[in-house]
Amino acid sequence: MTRPKPARTARGAQYDAGIAGMPPLTMIAPNYCRAIRLLMAALAVAAAMVAAASADSTADALRRAAGLARMEAFADAVAALPPLTGLTREHLVPLGDAAKALQLEQPAAASRLYAAMRRLDPGAAAPRVALEALWTRSPAPPAIEPDDLPLLPVQAETTRLPAGASMPEAHITTLSVKPFLASEPATEPRSGETFPRRTAVYSGRSLRFIVYDGPWLPASRAAQVGRLLGALSVASDHLLGASSRAGYPYSVWLSNRGKPGAEQWGGGIVIHAAAAERSDLEWARELAHEWGHAVIPGVGGFNRPEAWANGDLGERMFVPALQEYGWQSAWSNGLDASPYVARAVAPLRDAFARTGPVPRLLADSSEAGFRHFLGAALYIRSAYGDALLAEALGDMDSGSSAGFMAAFARAVGRRAEVTVHRVPGAAGARPICFAAAGSYTLIGLPTQARRLPALEAGWTMLNWDGPLTVRKGAGQGGNDHGCTLQIRAPRAHRQQ
What we know:
Blueprint: H1 10-21, H2 25-70, H3 74-80, H4 92-102, H5 107-120, H6 125-135, E1 154-161, E2 170-177, E3 186-187, E4 194-195, E5 197-203, E6 206-213, H7 221-240, E7 250-254, E8 261-265, E9 268-272, H8 280-295, H9 310-324, H10 338-355, H11 359-362, H12 367-384, H13 386-394, H14 401-413, E10 417-420, E11 430-434, E12 438-443, E13 455-456, E14 458-462, E15 468-472, E16 483-488, H15 491-495
Parallel strand pairs: 6-7, 7-9, 13-16
Antiparallel strand pairs: 1-2, 2-5, 3-4, 5-6, 8-9, 10-15, 11-14, 12-15, 12-16
């Protein structure tokens, strides 16, 4: 049965009338399409206007930078440079003007501008020739952009150093001027020896070293040395933090003169008789030693084996660190620091671990005092960590063993809590520093070792396994909360 159709409401009737009065779709479609075409054309015109305005803005910024450079306001000129994106051939002239005005005083900025010109016009001779002149002149630009490397007249090689537990990924890039271009010879200031080749070493984008050498070495040696120095510099930045004395860039001279050896002075390192036979580990040790002199605050006053101990400390910190970080590939053949650690690091560290600081040796200027300082620093690195060691090195009132130990006690005293790791080796007690009198809670001390005698502030010997947390203030007692230890003032202090 068919239902009757419901009656239309008044509003429905109005709707029907409106529909009936509309033109047919065949009339609407042409008008609709025309409106869409007009809208698209308007959008295209607007986009062109925006692009033109942007192009004008970029060109104006380049011209402004060139003008500032001509007025010798070079820092302002670099700050005025626009982002080098969305460039067209219309920008070639203002790019060239800005690059030419900046190339003598701001070679890194000029290098970027010339590289941008080469992207826009790969066949043009002017930017290529300008880059060749820029890169055959010393010094190397203080910064590079990785995207520009294929456009530069250099042989570039980037080594990736992998991220580790405590280290971010690092990239060391070595750049040497291509062989068909003759670099201007450089002269080592003290000896007067000339070096016809140079290799720039960058960590990330920043210039770290310029390595000078000559035909007495294989062409690859400077880049090999540069990669290792770059890795050492990143490691030292991490290990020393604000205590580092690094001032980049450093000059490194691979000399053809003298007997095998090395020395550091001012802003330079000289490797004597660089062509002489050296093992891979000896290259690493020698470079790390001189880099230690350059960046570690000095502890000196010794008469044997040398006046300052920061070089020996540098090699004993930095060479093992490369292996700890998994950065053995920084040297082309790879590095195994294990024999060096067993021979030069562990004996000094373990000797201090058996005795703690010995006042007589802290005041000793002979080789025994020299070795005692190294043992103390290496023990602190292993037991307390890099941050406390760096803080102590940077806070010394005097550059002596005693000054270093006092600075370490202050660094410990500034912390509410420290964690001490047992240095591997023979069984027995190990030294711990209590910086001041007061109550301490020890977490991680074996139950059988908790019957402790009264102790004075300073260094004392305790026996424990695994990490031991030393926290200022009294705990709650019990196995879960550690034990409370009272530390009294040193006797000399109490008598004052």
